[in-house]
């Protein structure tokens, strides 16, 4: 045993040494960076419909050879903190900005020395910066005087990251940044500087002061950008910079305008602001060599109107250059046409200049998928995301009610001797519950038109499936086995080939919330493992298969499941870890091996080594590593502090889900049932182990699998509840069968 343990330890050590070695990746450096320019126009707080409803000939020109999409702009703050989305774009990570993040000024502008209005002494912004930071500001026209508060706030939430990352890398690579414009109303609102600044809060060139504004009685709020003066500043700055950020804040000023106006007038004013921005964009386009220029139009924050509809995370983005074509944006962060994230913004700009920073940003450069009707695709995608956002909880609650009724129907009579539902209804209900994941996967094929129809399809369709299977097979456990294996195989087909149905299912991910964009989510991961175990062990029960044959069959299939969950396909590391643990437990339990501390340690170490190996392969051989590979890279570069940051974030997610997840009531019920059955109904469990050994083994493995899923996944609450459905529903059916076969007299002997 000591020798085995030593060998495993040596293997783990060797892997750590290999993983600690520098990972070589090609960096494409441009020979003529100085000839290229990136123009980023910021039109904040608008929607895709606002752009489509506006007359924008210059944006239309960009779209003829450019791509559009939605960008997930989620940050670690409420929507009232506009600066967080800007800072997240510049840092390439979801973070929180200081509420003072818009305090940026020209370095020689006079600024109040005191926070108290009684003292009227003014000094330069440079002096204030030195007072606040203890350092003389480096060269640069624009200074964000709140840089230390910005840094403190952001790194408290997201430690081991870099404030001003995009500006810092640009500076190190010889690129020069600039910013013009503002979103000022009654106070400075210059959050766009959070995008362009370096780690010191400095921007080499810029013009953001309030004298860029002019009064206009025909504009809500009474002020707008003076386009002539703004263009003069662009002409002054443009020859000196590679990246120019234009904050066309009129769209924000309209959103913040007096509430006394009507919604129609506000919408009309917003469209006029977009059209003015388009006109200004056309003037800028004439000042640059468009063959060597990247144009991007971004919206860091959603409009109030779309937020009220439920879209708090997706905003329009447009990208165009000489090397793009008409179509949809995509990135390896999302792997979904028409969808990118704020993580991808920085890498995309740097990639345009031939600069690769794989370890600095967790995102990936945006690419273009050719499509002649991108707006149609995006509007359809947006409608689908909003529908799921609105009704996802309805699907879940209905599913929860079904499971709850089944648990009460099966187990309440075991304790109070009161039969809630007839056995026939319970049998159909149990099969319907197990068929729901299949109908949840396919409901999207009908386009999510009407919630009533979709609910009928999901639950009515599941009942029809259960009815048909029940009519085909005479044996109840054959129906269970068939339904379990069909579900498992169908999920694997989607993972390996279709790569779509689970993602847009009510049990799938939420594109607006932005937790996962591809692969298999935790909900379906729990279903995959549970249905696999139920299917195989039901077959083993029916056909009395020998132990070695059982082990070969199910282990071979579990390898397929592990590969499906791995970073190369499903990209669910918690699921991969759980599946590995389940596979090893299968070997122990199938061969009736007793548990010991040494065996448990071997299993745990083996699983950890396996996970490290998969993550290492993802980093070394996958040209576009998943979040698992990137996490490993972060651990290598960030060390233990990065490890504890990831663990801390995961634990916060676990506790949040324990409090808020709708499936908690089912999971808690299952935990209580486990205790009650073990404490007061152990005799019937012993009988099941003796008379139905293969089913009992499957139940035990499923129970341990549920525990593993809960421990290894930050959102494992729902997944654990779902895998345990494949334990407690079949166990309830089996108990009912025993009662029915033995009669009430013999029933009480067991209970």
Note down, in words, how this protein is organized.
The protein is an alpha/beta fold and 751 residues long. The protein folds into 2 domains: 33-372, Alkaline Phosphatase, subunit A (3-Layer(aba) Sandwich), CATH 3.40.720; 382-750, no CATH class. Strands 1, 2, 7, 9, 12, 13, 14, 15, 16 and 17 form a 10-stranded mixed sheet that branches. It has a 3-stranded antiparallel sheet with strand order 3-6-8. A hairpin with a 7-residue loop joins strand 10 and strand 11 (223-225). Helix 20 runs antiparallel to helix 25 (693-712). The longest helix has 43 residues, at 374-416. It starts with a helix and ends with a helix. Residues 11-31 and 744-751 have low confidence and may be disordered.
